[in-house]
Specification:
heterodimer, B: 113 residues, mainly beta, 4-stranded antiparallel β-sheet
């Protein structure tokens, strides 16, 4: 699986937007970009994923560069509950239904949110 | 998305003993994954378990140490055998959920004394 690079840590203020970057310069055409977060003392939680186009859901937005070599997870208004480690992961998928791949975690970005 | 029940949530075990961790999913899934998270570290994939076939282990993990069962499409177990203090970690199971990404259990916090 292709490697991703994320900053070790970031800080944000409550109720401000947060942009979490991820570099994946060796991404292949069939790699999906997944984001997960792990709150303290919990298992990882799915946030969002995409292939080429920007994606939005109730939790976040995912902005994917045109060349797909980087992406940014956007939390529109950070809350204290968003303090977590955020993981950007590339996963090889054999078909559009996201079957068959395995998640390989890097070190992620530890996001702290200040009141 | 699926709901995963993982048991036990935590345990303290004597070195040299074994612990079996159970993972129950509320829907049928093809593949289940087992991870280890050592203190202060990220998650490391141990193995992938398909129903009806032997589990596939990642580099550094062997079946004798971490035997896995996958008797049906909703259940799997991971056994940590002949434990030592170095096995003290959080163990998590995970399943793929298509457009919902991957769902994780809440983990088993294992302490070996």
């Amino acid at each position: 699986d292709a490697k991703t690079t994320q900053p070790n840590s970031m800080e944000s203020n409550e109720e401000e937007p947060v942009h979490l970057p991820c570099n994946h310069s060796t991404i292949s055409g069939t790699d999906y970009i997944h984001w997960y977060r792990q709150l303290p003392s919990q298992g990882p939680e799915y946030v969002i994923h995409g292939l080429t186009s920007n994606v939005n859901n109730r939790m976040a937005s995912l902005a994917i560069a045109e060349d797909r070599k980087s992406s940014t997870l956007i939390l529109h208004r950070a809350t204290l509950r968003d303090a977590a480690v955020y993981y950007c992961i590339l996963i090889f998928n054999l078909n559009p239904y996201n079957q068959g791949g395995k998640l390989i975690f890097g070190q992620g970005t530890e996001l702290s949110v200040k009141p | 998305s699926a709901v995963i029940s993982q048991k036990p949530s935590r345990d303290i075990c004597q070195r040299g003993t074994s612990l079996t961790i159970q993972c129950q999913v509320d829907s049928q899934v093809t593949m289940m994954f087992w991870y280890r998270q050592q203190p202060g570290q990220s998650l490391t994939l141990i193995a992938t378990a398909n129903q009806g076939s032997e589990a596939t282990y990642e580099s550094g993990f062997v079946i004798d140490k971490f035997p896995i069962s996958r008797p049906n499409l909703t259940f799997s177990t991971l056994t940590v055998s002949n434990m030592s203090p170095e096995d003290s970690s959080i163990y998590l199971c995970s399943v793929e959920q298509g457009n919902y990404g991957y769902t994780f259990g809440s983990g088993t916090r294992l302490t070996v004394v």
